[in-house]
Amino acid sequence: MAFTNEQLERYSRHIILKEIGVKGQKKLLNAKFLINDACVMEKKPLSHAGIIRFKGQLTTILPGEGPCYRCIFQSPPPKDAVPTCKEAGVIGAMGGVIGSLQAMEAVKYITGAGELLSGYLLTYDALKMEFRKIKLPPRGKGCAVCSDTPTITKLIDYEQAACELKH
Amino acid sequence: MKIIVAGVKKEVAEGLTVQGLIEQEQVETPEYVTVSVNEEFIESGTFASHVLKDGDEVEFLYFMGGGAYGIYE
Ligand SMILES: [Zn+2]
Fold first, then answer.
1. Among residues A27, A3, A5, which one has the least CA distance to residue A16?
2. How far is CA A110 from CA A39, A106, A115, B59, in A?
3. E strand or H helix at B35, and its extent?
4. Is the separation of the CB atoms in A157 and A80 below 8 Å?
5. Å from B46 to nearest chain A CA?
6. A123, CA 20 to 30 Å: which among A34, A60, A160, B35?
7. From CA B36, how far away is CA A1, in angstroms rounded?
8. Kindly report the CA angle at B43 between A42 and A62, in degrees rounded to 5?
9. SS3 for A38?
10. How many residue pairs from chains A and B have C-beta atoms closer than 8 A?
11. B chain contacts of residue A94, beta-carbon cutoff 8 Å
12. Are B71 and A17 in contact (CB < 8 Å)?
């Protein structure tokens, strides 16, 4: 599917940190799902990463090949249900470690070298100094967006949902 | 029986369910953890009824946000 200019403008605003930050952190949590859905619909690769305290994780999502973000985490947890970096904190170096690994995945995607993390979740526990490459289940089975019979066929306007809550 | 939890072999009681293992392992935010057994996702609604078997390989996948929460707040 192709997005109209108006849609692109609206949705791309979600992924600009400044914009997300001003409106509060809830949207960033949801933005992961929004970005995932957009990538699945447009068949674009996505590098997902998350960090908290001394732990981090990353995977590379290749729509149609490996599991997508929604295959793993079906829908956004309610606000304040899971600890965020703001409450729980994160070690600054964690961003460097995991961010560099994401950059490495991007280099490999662009050059075609090696094997991407599609189908795997790489986890990093800094306290144990342990990396684990966890094999993920195959994509699609029951996934709301990347199964053969998806129930999500257009992007969910989380911004609108957030605004409606306020009224 | 022996199962493998996050890559580590463990001796657990026969009849242990996914829910039981979550409690035993003191999994953080258990309502939002994703569980795979032998490389298959387990539906969260069936955690309490899914009985583990000898040799099962269990992984807990934790929901993690980004690194930018609250920066601009
Ligand atoms: Zn999926």
1. A27
2. 16, 6, 12, 30
3. strand B34-37
4. no
5. 15
6. A34
7. 32
8. 25
9. helix
10. 95
11. 67
12. yes
What domains are defined for chain B? Answer: 2-70 (3.10.20.30)
Q: Is the pLDDT of residue A68 over 60?
A: yes
For the entire predicted model, the pTM comes to: 0.84
Looking at residue A27, its pLDDT comes to 53
Alpha-carbon Rg for chain A, nearest whole angstrom, is 16
**Residues on B contacting A at a C-beta cutoff of 8 Å:** 6-7, 28-29, 31-32, 34, 36, 39-41, 43, 59, 61-73
Within 8 A of B36 by CB-CB distance, chain A residues are 134, 136-137
For A5-76+84-135, the fitting CATH number among 3.40.50.720, 3.40.640.10, 3.30.450.40, 3.90.1720.10 is 3.40.50.720
Domain boundaries defined on chain A: 5-76+84-135
**ipTM value of the model?**
0.88
Distance CA A68, CA A48 (A): 10
pLDDT digits (tens, 9 = 90+) for A10-55: 666 555 544 444 454 455 556 788 888 888 998 989 999 998 889 9
Per CB-CB distance under 8 Å, the chain B contacts of A142 are 41, 43
